[in-house]
Amino acid sequence: MSFLELHELTKRYGDHTAVDRLTLSVQQSEFVSLLGPSGCGKTTTLQMIAGFVAPSAGAIALAGRDLLAVKPNRRGLGVVFQSYALFPHMTAAQNVAFGLEMQGVGRTERDKRVVDALALVGLSGFADRHPRRLSGGQQQRVALARALVIRPHILLLDEPLSNLDAKLREEMQIELRTIQRTVGTTTILVTHDQAEAMALSDRIVIMNHSRVEQIAAPQHAYERPATPFVARFLGKTNELAGSARAEGGETIVTIGPARWSHSRAKPGPIIAAVRPEKIAFAAPAADRFAGVVKTRIFQGNHWLYRVATSAGDIFVIRQNTGDDMPAEGEQVALVWRAEDMTVRGA
Q1: Which domains does the chain have, with CATH numbers?
Q2: Quick check: pTM over 0.90?
Q3: Strands 238-247 and 258-261, how do they pair?
Q4: How far apart are CA 33 and CA 196, in angstroms?
């Protein structure tokens, strides 16, 4: 049995359905992200787990127990909000100790657990500082320590890194994943940041318009998106029109002059989705997909290209190896492997 079970979880506000029959099983110590655009239902789902919002239908079970029958303050969940919600008049240590005081934990045990929690998040020397004297990243760590110190069954994170700048957010992603693995707390993260979800999660739940589009490990969802929405939402993708037909016991996909044997394609008009980093440059040839470099942008560790072709503009990402790269206006051929295409009927 899974540690946390959401079954047909639904939330309606009048005629509007915020979450539509979401079913999800989460294993103990697993890190799962709810990912999607604003308004897709991910935060509402988190709030139903926390008990802040009552479901319209469905069930939530934690370790086999009906969680909906338990009051929010009795569910044993740790929550970190986007705003951190630290008490400004309390020091870092006092903020972390607050939940333990509410639980009636004795002073000696409380002090020890606060010291351990601050050490876990790398803030041992900041116990006496008030939030106004802490950076955004340090405040986020205090909020995380406060959530972890009560030893929650599940840690719920609601866009906890969105207020940080890009560099600090990347650093905190590494810290957060390290802490989660160290403690082993089952964690559910709400985010609209695709890179964040893929970097942190064991699995991601991609949501759109209140419904789940795909539940999968990050690499699987990226490489084998279940729907066109997932393909577009998880980074850049190129969509190319072509055809597939049976030929000599194989299914041959044709896009322009290029042909591939593709085991997952079905005969008929198709749309092939190809990630930009899967496409390589080659010398022009009659049986290769041809184009002209329209723009190229240097982005440090890679080059981003836009290539004009008969099928429209195609984006290409190539790692910066220090070698010469095609220049703007240069004619190129684009090549990729059949296994790097996700093919669906047009």
Answers
A1: 4-233 (3.40.50.300), 238-345 (2.40.50.140)
A2: no
A3: unpaired
A4: 9
